């Protein structure tokens, strides 16, 4: 039953997500919370690992969640669920693209989806950022903890280097190394 639930849940996520893996984060958060499958902290860890491993983010996160909940069968069902809608949709789009390429409806849909995708990504950034920086909620005591300032420092350094076009792999490796160093030396 859990495998069918994983397939259907990730099929819905894959079907209603436009804009890639980050745009699906709010949907994943909502579904995982609604099912009570993972804590926010565990989901954040899965997001970090999914971003750090090769392959599409959506497939990675679905595979990790499915594996955690139901082993290899769960991983296969969640992965198939998240990938199947895109596969079906791209087959349809490829078949019909020339016919609808200049359609005002298609153009309007794309115009409406672009800002919505940015909004979904922004929502994921805010909720995940709050969970990373304020795991116990926003209190004055949080601002006096070393872990808060280490997280803010790693975020700021990564943001500056990203704007300077440092390669994402280098940023991931750097942030992981800084996190390990902070864990051993400071926290």
Indicate the proportion of strand residues: under 5%
Secondary-structure element pattern, one letter each: HHHHHHH
Number of domains: 2
What separation lies between the terminal Cα atoms? 42 Å
What is the number of helical segments per DSSP (H or I, 4+ residues)?
7
Multimeric organization: single chain
Q: Average pLDDT value? A: 86
Radius of gyration: 19 Å
How many DSSP-defined strands? 0
Q: Helical proportion? A: over 70%
Low-confidence region ranges? none
Which sheet architecture does the biggest sheet show? none
What gross morphology would you assign?
globular
Secondary structural class = mainly alpha
Describe the protein's architecture and organization.
It is a single chain. This protein has 187 residues and is an all-alpha fold. The chain has 2 domains: 2-133, no CATH class; 137-187. Helices cover 79% and strands 0% of the residues. It has 7 helices and no strands. Helix 1 crosses helix 4, helix 3 (40-52) crosses helix 4 (57-100) and helix 6 (146-163) runs antiparallel to helix 7 (168-185). The chain is globular and about 60 Å long. The mean pLDDT is 86.
